[in-house]
């Protein structure tokens, strides 16, 4: 991540935008020597928004915690068990 003053960012905006879009670089843009703005790609922004959405959903987080506990205690299924269950469901057998 590069830190650049706003005057430099203004002069190089097309180059910075290309780097952000193509190489997923990040830039912190300063104003009067203090961090003021971040320049990130749309893909990275959308990923952050999705992560925040997941983290703020209490049901999803509860399921994630339970999954981690199940994994830690060995309460899991191996590939053959999953395939067998999927095959039963495909055939309509409960």
From TrEMBL:
InterPro entries hit by this protein: Antitoxin_Phd/YefM, phD/YefM_antitoxin, YefM-like_sf
Organism of provenance: Nocardia bovistercoris
Protein function: Antitoxin component of a type II toxin-antitoxin (TA) system.
Name of protein: Antitoxin
Signal peptide annotation: none
Pfam families xrefs: PhdYeFM_antitox
Family classification: Belongs to the phD/YefM antitoxin family.
UniProt-listed PANTHER family: ANTITOXIN YAFN, ANTITOXIN YAFN-RELATED
